[in-house]
Automatic annotation (TrEMBL):
Species lineage: Bacteria, Pseudomonadati, Pseudomonadota, Betaproteobacteria, Burkholderiales
UniProt GO MF annotations: electron transfer activity; heme binding; iron ion binding; oxidoreductase activity, acting on CH-OH group of donors
SUPFAM superfamilies reported for this sequence: Cytochrome c
Residues holding heme c 3: 346, 349-350
Protein name: C-type cytochrome
GO cellular component, as recorded: plasma membrane
Superkingdom of the source species: Bacteria
Location of the Cytochrome c domain: 48-151, 195-310, 333-423
Amino acid sequence: MSNLKKGILAVAGVVAVGVVGAFVYAKQGTATRDIGPGTANLTAPDAQLIEKGRYLAVAADCVACHTAPKGQPFAGGLAMATPVGAVYSSNITPDKQNGIGNYSLNDFDRAVRHGIAASGDTLYPAMPYPSYAKISDDDMRALYAYFMKGVPAVAQANKSHDIPWPMSMNWPLAIWRKTWAPAVEPLVLSKYQGEALARGAYLVQSLGHCGACHTPRATTMQELAQDESNPLFLSGGPVIDGWLAVNLRSNPAGGLGRWSEQDIIDTLSKARNAHSAVVGSPMADVVSHSTQDMTPEDLKAIAVYLKSLSPGPEEKARYAASDATAKALKAGQNDTRGAQLYLDNCAACHRTDATSNAKVFPALAGNPSVLSDDPTSLIRLVLAGSSLPSTKGAPSNLGMPGFAWRLSDDEAAQLVTFVRQSWGNQASAADAGQVAKIRKQIDAEAEVAKH
């Protein structure tokens, strides 16, 4: 046998041994701590415990992912896109055939905090168990009581994931979980100074799972930070459903550095504040299904915690308020194509000074979404438009129309660039190629929605 063949066989043997070893490692069970009922009567929980669990489920926004469009609450079936295909949320009602009606407390805990289904399979991290790992034992008991006794059972079968083989194999997920998911350790609140700060840290890091969207991820898809000790935590995440998850740290341009605590509270309760607004379906769903129904005390705590965060990595964008653009527009002295497009399409609502109308239309001057280093959200907003969710505190669901029908790729790029570089905004330009890519995505989404 030639040396080449011997070498190939040797490499193949090493690879085979490695694959078998990885498979065996993945299939090894994960030991978890049985939390037990504590002082709670989980067989016949009282109304107070069930209500506590209901509120915690609101804070965790469980209904947003576990409810399909026009579907029954918590019955699952919502499609979620991943790099390898679509996964569908599961039925988490107490139906014994299709849901979690046969789950023990520890089965429930293993699924929520460890990412392990009762079958032993690892859950896709679309379920934010890396964040839920910090939920306290008492809160887990309350959540279990609510889902077992406070949620109506729905006999809806679970949908199989649309992921082709071999990506559909579960054992690589188990390796991912064992390698990257944080240990299940309830958050130590004593390290935070003050009750509000501690409560805010708990809500943001665990139940609210804010980092699942707003923290950047590695190429292996794990979050790069889990708490405020790392400046990447909440420094801005990937594009989700076409919208960029913004920086929640104190960066002055694309972050919340110029926001007050009240601005954050208003955004979470009303989807708008004095100078900005929620755009895009992911965060609109959070406000609609979760944060608008949280207590004022908890919203205050979240605001206190977010305002305690130092700025994250340095931004390319800057903002220094300036009235030069407004004066030039009013005097007819700005004849660039971007300025003309702004006057024709935007100024009626956002005004020539880009301050818009407080709490009605968001300001464009100094807006973090405008100043983000990545212009994806602003481009999508110009092309497809968006609507504010109707909330108890601000029931009018005001909307912005899309302009894809009347703007070419080059025109949209010039308009977006004008907005990002006027009134003191100092952000990078957009180009026609970026617009074309996002337009194609929007068109594809529209085709899928027809079926």
